[in-house]
Amino acid sequence: MSPDLSIIIVNWNGGELLRRCIESVARYPASTSWEIILVDNASTDNSLEWVRAANLTNLRLIENRQNLGFGKANNLGFSLSSAPLLFLLNNDAEVQEGAIDRLIVTIRSGARVGACGPRIINPDGSLQVSVWRNPPTPSAMILGALRLYRLLPRRVAGELLLGQHWDHARRRRVNMLLGAAMLVKREVVDELGGFDERFHMYAEDFEWCLRIVRGGWEIVFEPEAVVLHHGGQATGKRWQEPERLLANHESSFLFYRISLSWWHNVANLAIPCLIAVPQLAWRALRRRPAENQKLALKLHFAELKRVLRGHRPTEPQ
């Protein structure tokens, strides 16, 4: 009999953190029937030795011969499950007591609630930002980059900008959740598909969440469910700066191209270019390093030129 919940964990060289992730699920399991589908992206460490030795009866291990990336590996997990609920959980995340059950209650609270996510904390217990405005808007970019939000009451700035400006303290509908821990209804995947496999790493959760909302489903942030996330472990092992910055920006530009109108895309690319000039000048005056800022400006300017030189595409649906 198929379980009610499939917990999909994508692993690449997770090491000790993968063990802690799986043990947290076993320590604080869902009240309903569940399974773990562990999709390994050709790990080269000893991640799977513990998994094989543990011989967990409700865990299915899928071993890929190459690193498929986050989105494609999750899609493989979706295809292997027939459960009505799918819980995406990073291999460097640990569920806290009652978190899974709280998310299940939340996702079942409305017929059109298609996904929900927990409050995410860092290992030291501090808040890890997991909710952003989606898609990014030119006005929000200006308010954030120029720190004009300081002119607004803190509560107003939080509601307008979300991200690090919002305290993540109340339950609300959102357009974006961090893919590190996210519960999704099977109906959503069947209707809208899973992750866009053109994304290898970064921004795939932005695109998927926006597609879910545009498809008429609701996404809910649930602060009463808590998940600890170590954050950035896989990318830190795989890339160093500036490779990580390059991969991040390339994925963001892909998200803009396929999800935003031509005008919105141009504005989102132009504003960082305009803002970067005085920021770089200020850093030069104060003799502060600016290699990452220079690279970001170069990448945004190159993408802006590419978009302006190309034909104006049709508006996204």
Task: Describe the structure in your own words.
The chain has 317 residues and is of the alpha/beta class. The chain has helices spanning 15-27, 47-54, 70-79, 99-107, 138-145, 154-161, 186-192, 204-214, 233-238, 243-259, 262-285, 291-309, and strands at residues 5-11, 34-41, 59-64, 85-89, 93-95, 113-121, 127-128, 172-174, 181-185, 218-229. Strands 1, 2, 3, 4, 5, 6, 7, 8, 9 and 10 form a ten-stranded mixed beta sheet that branches. A hairpin with a 5-residue loop joins strand 6 (113-121) and strand 7. The longest helix is centred in the C-terminal third of the chain and has 24 residues, at 262-285. The mean pLDDT is 92.
SSE layout:
Elements: E1 5-11, H1 15-27, E2 34-41, H2 47-54, E3 59-64, H3 70-79, E4 85-89, E5 93-95, H4 99-107, E6 113-121, E7 127-128, H5 138-145, H6 154-161, E8 172-174, E9 181-185, H7 186-192, H8 204-214, E10 218-229, H9 233-238, H10 243-259, H11 262-285, H12 291-309
Parallel strand pairs: 1-2, 1-4, 2-3, 6-10
Antiparallel strand pairs: 4-9, 5-10, 6-7, 6-9, 8-10
Helix pairs in contact: 1-2, 5-11, 10-12, 11-12
